[in-house]
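Honest question from a wet-lab person: if I give you the sequences of every part of a complex, can you actually get the arrangement of the whole thing, not just the pieces? Trying it with mine:
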Amino acid sequence: MRVRFAVAVLLASLLLVPSGGVGLAAPARDTLVYASDISDMISLDPAVAYEFSGILVAQNIYDTLVAFEGEDLTTLKPRLARSWTIQDAGSAWKVTFKLRTGVKFSTGRPLTAKAVAFSFDRVIGLNKSPAFLFKDVAGLKEGDTKAVGDDTVEVTLPKTASPQAFLSVLTFTVGAVVDPDEALAHQTGNDRGEAWLRDHSAGTGPYMLERWDPESRAIMVANPNYWGAKPKLSRVVIQHVPETSTQKFMVSAGDADIAANLTPEQAREMVSDANVKIQRGKLLQLVYIGMNAKHAPLDKVKVREAIRTAIDYDGIVRSLLRGEARKVQTIIPEGLFGFNASAPFQANAARAKALLKEAGVGGGFSVELLLPTGPAPGGVKWSDIAAKVQNDLAKAGITVKIKETAQAQLLNVYRAQKGQLVMILWGPDFPDPDGNATPFTDYEAKSIAWRNQYNDPAAAKLAKQAALETDLAKRRALYKRLTDRVLHEGPYVILYQPTTRFALRKNVQGFVWNPMAFAEFKTVSK
Amino acid sequence: MSRYILGRIASTGLVLVGVSALTFFIAHVVPGDPVLVALGEHAREDQIQAYRRAYGLDRPVVVQYVIYMGRLLRGDLGVSIRTRRPVAVDLRQFLPATVELGTAAWLVAMMLGIPAGILSAIFKDRAFDHLSRIAALIGASMPVFWLGLLLLGNFYFRLHWFPGPGRLDITIDAPPARTGLLLVDALLSADPIAWGNALRHLILPGLTLGLFSTAVVARMTRSAMLEVLYQDYIRTARAKGLSAWRVHLWHALRNAMIPTLTIIGISFGNLLSGAVLTETVFAWPGLGRYATTSAVSLDFPAVVGVTLVAAVIYTLVNLIVDLIYARLDPRVRYD
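Yes, you can. This is the full assembly:
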């Protein structure tokens, strides 16, 4: 009797186990599945999006007037504008764009110069996260962009703004052109279509948005009205997969074509998978230590030089990060115009001690190093890098007290100029050297230089001069002078420039990661 | 009885006020600035100030609380600092996925835990009992995160028995959202393909999340059953010649269920609020992940919103459990 009962209960429980053989639903031939953590996606409106995943989608559904293509962030290419000129108009810069003809929005309406003026004014009027690129970097106000006829756009920039930096800003989603009629047709109150464009699209890009389910997926389909070569894949699914091990499973199983957030270990494990290839992507971030230039003894240039001299950069890049980064010691990252490859510092404890002695702190000193919790770019924990720095500096007689704290709290301390040594990262807001040069050198810009109480008017002046220079050879020379100066006098230890990595199914071709942290899917095939 | 229910519902209101106050002030004690988190490191001072003003964060905390409570009483949960959408909209979006997952896990716990507990008690100190107790120990101590990856790695990746992460295959269109519960929505729109696919997607995360509760329910059922099985009325029932089925399932289980029920009720609340790791591993767009991301971003309107939902669920489940007590045990009366 008992046995019969037991069997009955077991059978009932077994009902839960499904019959085997559920097939994997591999994505269709014309669909690309891109597995990534998209929990930061809050809007796909190009005037609002300023998060990595929002920008990734917006870059593919909208076009900009000019663009940097592939990995090259030094040569501007025409996009919606077929040509452009920069003119010194006395009291202002006049940047004139001639628009490509025959371009239509995904809505079917033609692209006009008025649409460009509307889009630029819209960014300024809405004043969301990316608006500072127009307002502060380019010094634009509503009305400064004018349509002259149907195919000419004239932008008037104040003389204080850099025309080159403005063109770089225009490659970013903030410079995307939206269909004004569509945006206004869906206007709520005075929002110029902001609420609607959050999860709809009205652009001229190769794709248009089919749907976005927050924390789940965003689906793009080919835009039938696209002016350029038809995208090779007609559908792109950006699938939200927050856990990187799960991303790895999905690519190995063929359920995803690209995994975007693998750790270095996971990427190494996948090398043996015959169906998968690993591809590196460049980034423009710099991982650095800011030294508070008003906090004794960091206020002495030689003490800061001693710290830079003592650190074992090669050890960090080779042993800790296992090659997931490159050694960069100047404030403009590799990949941007004006990069200075000079890297004179490498683990020289004797020289560091001598410098400390010259600075009058031969007996060493103690200092606090503030760093965020969690993983740093490149895949290791911030605390591991800090431990390495602590060890290197100890050899020069400097005692480092490590203080790990949540990033939100760290920023509070850093922004209040209360850090001593602060380890953190910086990525430029737009792909122009000025996106780093001004924050790192201009105290008045209230950015990194200000946080580290580094007030060097000569450096700030050089940065300004370089930003405004329109002659590229002269501009390059100015950035060389500036980066050399900050390399030795500034309050920064630039530790490394990280790379990122992707796992791709073997059949995926044409995927190129733009160092500004997005990819154009129109070139991808499989 | 109805007076009792009304009283309990009224006291739930007080609990919610307490919970919201506590969460609100805890969220404000935490160092760090939600605006900096929302706008990022590069934000300029004027943007930060404008954002603070827009969300009323420039006022003293007490004033913020009064304003918040005023809105809350009108049913307005405020706007999330991170997603910049009304919290109520976010909750409506993310709660159903978690309810579906939590219910699946809860069913797993009931359907595996109760039979295992009963059999363990009947076969006390025999092979099945030892096996089930070891399994329960492992189930209760295994990290959810690891278990999830283990199940995914084996049953999805190696054996291909189950689909991968997410609520539906990428190739399948979601049925029109009416309740947000995919299984229900698929039924309402008579879409058997989506229904079957959603069900298959639910099994691995359901097992992952449900295993801990299965272990707890199994252990509780076992000890409750053991206590009952040696009582005089069971001996009498056996002496009367009743079948083992009838004795165990009718006479013993019914009484053993009373303490077990409390555990089942609490575990349902736990499943809904504790799903974050399972949701992360299985890319499940639910409330657990929303809560964690919000907490990390110091997004207190969202955190308070989630806490209130969790509080409502807990109090409702407790109320239901109390009511079922009365059905199971005629000695329990609420008047």
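Two things worth pointing out. Chain A has 18 helices and 20 strands. The first helix of chain A runs from residue 2 to 14.
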